[in-house]
Amino acid sequence: MIYIDTNIVVSYMDEADANHSRAVKLIQSLRGEKLVTSRLALVELASVYSRAGLENPLALALYSIEEAGVELAEVDFNDALSLAFRLSAELRLRTLDLLHITASKLLGAKYFATFDKDNNKQEGPSSEDRHKSDKR
User: Fold this and answer.
1) Do the Cβ atoms of 127 and 8 come closer than 8 Å?
2) In whole angstroms, what is the distance from residue 123 CA to residue 134 CA?
3) N or C: which end of the chain has fewer CB within 10 A?
4) Bridge-partner residues for 3, per DSSP?
5) Would you kindly state where each structural domain of the chain is located, as residue ranges?
6) DSSP secondary-structure letter at 31?
7) What DSSP state is assigned to residue 110?
8) What is the pLDDT of residues 14-59, one digit of tens each?
9) Contact at 8 Å (CB) between 109 and 36?
């Protein structure tokens, strides 16, 4: 199971995004793997789309998750918040990034795929490293 961070879905969907081709290659290389994210990504996507002035940001957020081939996994955010609190001093991440990391841990994800450089320092192989390893 691979946890997909919101920024990968955004880059995958937005052809003008600087990381679009990288996201497409990553998602394509992970076909056959179980890709998951949490409702936190859904909230972030709806926020991104509404701030961009796009119509129907809620429907677009749901569509984006589906189009990327990512499954919404149920996470108990009471547990996620408790774990995030315990890990916050050690990981020193922004709040939403920390919550995604804790959600991935609670789900038992083997990898956390992100384009965030701060997260890559903290959590296993980066999405770029994961992509490279799949091409070998």
Assistant:
1) yes
2) 18
3) C
4) 36, 112
5) 2-135
6) T
7) S
8) 999 999 999 999 999 999 999 999 999 999 999 999 999 999 999 9
9) yes
pTM of the model: 0.84
For 25-32, the CB contacts below 8 A with 24+ separation are: 25/131, 26/113, 26/127, 26/128, 26/130, 26/131, 27/68, 27/69, 29/130, 29/131, 29/134, 29/135, 30/2, 30/113, 30/130, 30/134, 31/69
Q: Which CATH architecture best describes the domain 2-135?
A: 3-Layer(aba) Sandwich (3.40)
Is there a contact between 13 and 7 (Cβ–Cβ < 8 Å)? no
Distance of CA 71 to the CA centre of its chain: 11
Q: List pLDDT tens digits, range 73-96.
A: 999 999 999 999 999 999 999 999
For the chain, state the CA radius of gyration.
Answer: 14
Beta bridge pairs of residue 37? 72
Sign of the dihedral through C-alpha 125, 91, 8, 27: positive
